[in-house]
Amino acid sequence: MLAIISDLHVQETRFDCVRYRANGQLKQIGVRRNVKAAAFKRLVTRIREAARRRKSSEVHLVFAGDVFELHRAPSWFFGSDNHVRPTDAIGEDVPDNPLRRKVSEILTQLETDEDHRQLWKAIRSFASNRPNRRLQVCVHYLPGNHDRLANAWPTVRRQVRRMLGMDDSSSAPFPVCLDFTGPALGDYGVRVRHGHEYDPPNFPWSTSTQTALDRGWQDYLRPAFGDYVTVDVAMRLALAFRARYAQALRGLVKRNETLPAPDQMRRLYLALTEFDDVRPASLLTEYLAAQMGRGRKETFKALKPVLRDVVETAVANRFFLDEASKHVPAVLLKLLPGLVKNLSAPMLEDIVRTLSKASDKQTDSPAQRALEEFRQNAGLQLVISGHTHSPEQVPLRGGAVPPGVEAFYLNSGTWRTTLPHGVGGFGRLRASTMIFCYNTREQQEGPEDGRTFEVWTGHLAAGTLGPYDEAVQRHSPARSGAMQLVFESFEALAVQKELDGAELKVSFGVDEQGDEAEFEGIRAGDGPRPLSKAPLRLDPNLDGDLWFHGVEVDWGNSPLNYDDPLPWALEPLPRESPHGQFRAGRHALRILGRGVGGADRSEFLLRYRIESG
Known about the structure:
There is one protein chain. The chain has 613 residues and is α+β, with helices and mostly antiparallel strands. The chain has three domains: 2-223 and 362-471, Purple Acid Phosphatase, chain A, domain 2, CATH 3.60.21; 245-358, no CATH class; 483-612, Immunoglobulin-like (Sandwich), CATH 2.60.40.150. The protein has 14 helices and 25 strands. The strands form five sheets. Strands 1, 4, 5, 8, 12, 13 and 14 form a seven-stranded mixed β-sheet that branches. Strands 6-7-9-11-10 form a five-stranded mixed β-sheet. A hairpin with a 2-residue loop joins strand 17 (502-510) and strand 18. The protein is globular. The N and C termini lie far apart (63 Å).
């Protein structure tokens, strides 16, 4: 018996949460979206029932990709290596490889986070099959496009095997395709892929007219356009918004700012953290505006600075330009920075809508692409993939399908929360799809009608899943007295050249507390500029969000002179433990701008210390 699931997208959401104080209460906003152990246990119950009916002696549990959400992780933007991205060169399996170090860090967060530990325990328990020794369990894993880097290094592969209850003494590469055909493999007539092979923006070897099916596992490590979009568009939008509006999210709006109310800003932030669950993607602008009620204009006015950051960062990135040119008209790429800089909020909304509609266009459906699989394997009857998050059961006829063969394409959907558009608005559903396939002997057992497969798709009302804004309990940090943060200096390591040096206006702070500074004649290599600011008292029950943003001032009255935004930065202050006191000592926040390695590269250091108050 085969049991196939995919697209769990187990994600680190701890850093999505924002804590604030209101009416004497400590409150927290966030989004509950991760798969729980109870959901997997329900799957195990169904597997055991089906195996008992079919008198199966073994079950192959296949995780068909995107089990681990390695891209939608805020950690890419934290730390001294916040320039590292999934699109970088793979490098060696050594501790000083920054990409491997970042991937291991994210996997360790997923493995040890209290939100996920019970899920991994349930998976390992089923894989070991302690409750029922008569049923042999074999676990298989295929990396998808969101967790392709789980296959990049032997040490990481062993870590993944441990999490999924597989034999972690092996460091062999994971397969990219599984065939269960022929007598030796149980005569299932099944091929399983993740399915990003059918989606050219997410698989660099495929094109709009042809699917690459003959690539080895090493080729699957090559980054794709979708890798950049997930990290430096989807993830970046939410974090840039959080950095720029750190104070407003916590209820402090400056007199010179015309922003929506703090509760509206918090709703908009949460919408940004989950907008990639919106279906169809072409209705993204409607979903964002729906979170603000009648404040549609204010929504896109607040989004404009962060959209500009995303766009200008993208067009300064060589990988983005090379890959985007395959999917986006070149003239639009050239015009996009100017459009975002100059358009009004309503016109900006129209541009975002146009771009998001383009993401829904597919040259061929996955089922049409799946027909190509039969040219390689005459023993197939079922081609199964995930990736799209849309469960499907599509009969296949003609093409390479042999006459008289009852063939199907099946999509294993997702276990992730979805935000489908219905009549008059959006809803939130918890999706769950499982596929069971039976071999020739199992088809003849049981009271059923000799079926070769079963697909069970459930959509549950989300209940407590989704966004929340609720009171939380205080932490109990070690009794080390009150702590405070002191900003020491600001230094330009790289900055756009100006005749008399650059003029900068910067804002920085922690949580709802902030300071400002202005500098003239800033040049790279001039050394640190001291900051004479009053210490900020730290509250260990808040997030400890250290944030920075600012502008480079362009003097003059011409409407073509704009204050150019500086790179932003956001990072949690170091702590002694996840819920403990902040770590005393001297630290630095690295602020790295677009154009890394280019002539317009910007890089700053904000030095600070944490000490007893």
